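Friendly challenge for the regulars: who can give me the structure tokens for this chain first? No prize, just bragging rights.
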Amino acid sequence: MKEGITDYAHMVIGFVAGLFTLLQPFVTTIIYAQFMIYEILEWFVVNDKVYNDLKEFGIGFAFGLIASILVSILAPQISFFFRT
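First reply, four minutes later:
Bragging rights claimed.
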């Protein structure tokens, strides 16, 4: 059960980092650095498999980046319909 929750948590963190890539790149850098420090400490202390965690983060990051790009492209067209 714990494995599934952490898998989704890594993807959510990656997704959030991906969303902030175009808006605030510094926030993305901080999130990524924090995640890498956490994974390195977990690797040394718990002897955990870091590859899977980084893969999950990367998948979430890719989806977040795609969502960020789509919002930046579609936002002007969407806001056109809501003008008063």
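The chain has a mean pLDDT of 84. The helical segments are 2-23, 25-46, 50-81. Your move, everyone else.
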